[in-house]
Amino acid sequence: MAQTEKKGGLLRKSSASKKPLKEKVVLMYDEIFTTEDPSKCNPRFWEELFLMKVNLEYLEGKLEALDGEELMKIKDNINCLFQHCIQALGEEHPIRVVNALQTLCALIRGVHQKNKSTSGFDIINMLVGFDKAELCMKNLMESLDSLLCAEGSESLKSLCLKLLLCLVTVTDNISQNTILEYVMINSIFEAILQILSSPLSRREHGYDAVVLLALLVNYRKYEVVNPYIVKLSIVDDEATLNGMGLVIAQALSEYNRQYKDKEEEHQSGFFSALTNMVGSMFIADADEKISVQTNEAILLALYEAVHLNRNFITVLAQSHPEMGLMTTPTSPIPMTPVTPLGTTPPSSDVISSAELPLDADVQTSNLLITFLKYSSIVMQDTKDEHRLHSGKLCLIILTCIAEDQYANAFLHDDNMNFRVNLHRMPMRHRKKAADKNLPCRPLVCAVLDLMVEFIVTHMMKEFPMDLYVRCIQIVHKLLCYQKKCRVRLHYTWRELWSALINLLKFLMSNETVLLAKHNIFTLALMVVNLFNMFITYGDTFLPTPSSYDELYYEIIRMHQNFDNLYSMVLRLSTNAGQWKEPASKVTHALVNIRAIINHFNPKIESYAAVNHISQLSEDQVLEVVRSNYDTLTLKLQDGLDQYERYSEQHKEAAFFKELVRSISINVRKNLAFNTLSQELLLKEFSTIS
C-alpha cells in the first residue's frame, strides 16, 4: 500500500500523480479567507471547526501571505473566528477548548506578523473589532482565568499560559502591545498566585507563570499605574512567596548544574591533557568556551520580587524541605510536554543533587546561595552581551539586598552559617581552591567574596566600568550596615584591601586608554572612600584591634600606589581640563591616607636604622604602627557612611526596557519552536464524552 504523506495541510499518495487532497480543516480555513460568511452555507461551520485538529503552520502561513489590503477584506471573518474561539473556551468538551486556544495563538501571531508597522489599535480592530473589543477581551480573560483556577486538566492550564505568553510577547516592546491594556483591566494575577502556591500546579506550570508575571509587571511600568506592580508589592502569603522562590531557585539551580556538567566534561577532555603537559598558560582561553545560555527571564522575576516586595526578602534565606532532600514526586507525570522558555528546570519540586550541601547534616541550601553561585558563573565573562546584561542584573539585585535592613540581618547572622562554593575564574597566577576547605560563614562573606572575585578578574581593556561601580557600591552598603549595627564580621579583609589597591593600580596604569571612555575618578573616589570608611570607623566593625593594625600595614606596604594616585589626580586637578573637578575630589579624599603614610614611613625608617635592619618583617612594622598611633592626626570626613538609595525609574529605565525587549523576543522564539505541538496534548482528550 502506498505511503500517505502529509505536508502543509495537503494529503497525497506518494505513488499517485493525482492532484493532492487538502485536509478538511485546511478547506475550512480557506473558506474563512474569503469575503463570504462561511456559516451561510454551513450553519454548523464554527461548531465543526473546533472539532478539527488545528493546523498552526497553515493558518499562520495563510495570514502572513496576505498583504494589509487583502487582510482588511476578510476582517469580518477574522473577527468572527476570534469571537467563536472565545465562545469555544466555555465549552464542556476539552477538545474544542484545546483547538480554540491553539487557533487563538495562531491568529494573534499571524495578525501581528502582518501588522508590525501599524499601531496596536489597528491590530485590535483586525482581531476583534473596536466595537466588540472590550466585551470580547473581557470574556477571553475571564475564560483563561477560569481554566487556570479550575481543578481540571493540567494540559489546558499549560496551553492557557502559552496563549498568554504569546499574547504578551507578540511585540518586541511589550509596552507598545495595546492588547495588554485588556490584560491590565481583567487581571489574572490571582490565578498566577494560585499556580505558585499549589505544589502540583507549581511543578507543572511554575516556570511559565513566573515569566508571565515578570513580563506583565513591566508593561508601561514608568508611564501608568500597573496593577500587577501594585498587587505584587503587597503579596504576603507565605506559601505563594515560597512557591515563587522555589521556581526561581530551580531554574537558577538547573543553570548551575548544566554549567558544572560542562565544566567537568571540559576538564576531563583534550584541553585538560594539554594544559597538564605544558602548564596552565591555556587555562583562561580554554575555559572561556564553557558556555550555557543565560536565563534573563527568571533573573528578571527574581529582581521584581526582591525590588517590589519586602516580604520576599525572607524567602531568600528560606530553606525549603524539598531543597534539602531528593524526593520522588507522588503525582502522575503529565503527558503534555511542558518545556519552559529558555531553560529546562528540574522535573519536580526538588533541587538537583549538585545543589545539596557538602554535608547534609550541617546545612541545606537556599535561594540566595543558588543565586550567588549563578552570579559567580555569569559574571565571569562579561564580553558576551547576554552575560553582561545578566551580570548587571545580578549586581542590581544584590544592591537591593544590600540596602534592605532585614536582608542584612540574616546576611550577617552568626547563627546562619553556610559553605558557599562560588565559581572562580581560572587564572594563571592562582591555584583552584579546594571545595572541601570552604569554611562555614555568614552569607555576607559569600557576597563579599563574589565582589572581590569580580574586582580581581575584570581588569581588562574592555573595562566594565558600570559593573565595577555597582560592585564597590554593594561593598560600601554592607560596610554601612556593619558600622551602624556594630557588626564585627570575621572576614579576610586583607583580600578586599589588596583587590581595591590593585584596582587603583590598574586605573593609573591605563589612565590614557580608560579616560577616553570613562570618568575613572568616580570609581577611584569610591575606592579611596572605602579605605576612608575603614580608617574612620574600622574600630567599630573590624573583628579585632589587630585587624585595624593590618589595615594600616597594607596602606603603608602599598604606599607607592597611593603616592602615584595622588600625583596623577594632583596633575589633572591643577590643569583647566574636563577632569579638574572630579580629580580634585580624589585629591581631597586622599588626605587621611597620605597622613598615615607620611606619619608612619619616617618612623619605620628610623626603627630600621636604629636596629640596623635592612628589611623589616610584618610584625616589626606592626609594632611601629601600634606604638605611634597616639601622635597620628587625622581629619574627620563627613558622609562616609551615607549613600544614595537605588532608584530604578530614574537611572535604570533604559536598561530594563532593553532587557525586557530581549526577553520578549526570546520567549516568543521558544514558543514558536517547541511548545505548541499538539500530538501529545490531544492524547489526554482522545474521546469526547
Q: Counting H and I runs of at least 4 residues, what is the number of helices?
A: 35
The class by helix and strand makeup works out as mainly alpha
Helix content: 55-70%
Q: What is the count of distinct domains? A: 3
Number of strands: 5
Oligomer: single chain
Q: How would the global form be characterised? A: elongated
Strand order of the largest sheet: 1-2-3
User: In percent terms, what proportion of residues is strand?
Assistant: under 5%
InterPro entries: ARM-type_fold, ARMD3-like, ARMH3_C
GO cellular component, one term: cytosol
Keywords: Membrane, Transmembrane, Transmembrane helix
Subcellular location: Membrane
Short structural summary:
With 689 residues, the protein is an all-alpha fold. It has 35 helices and 5 strands. The chain has a 3-stranded antiparallel β-sheet.
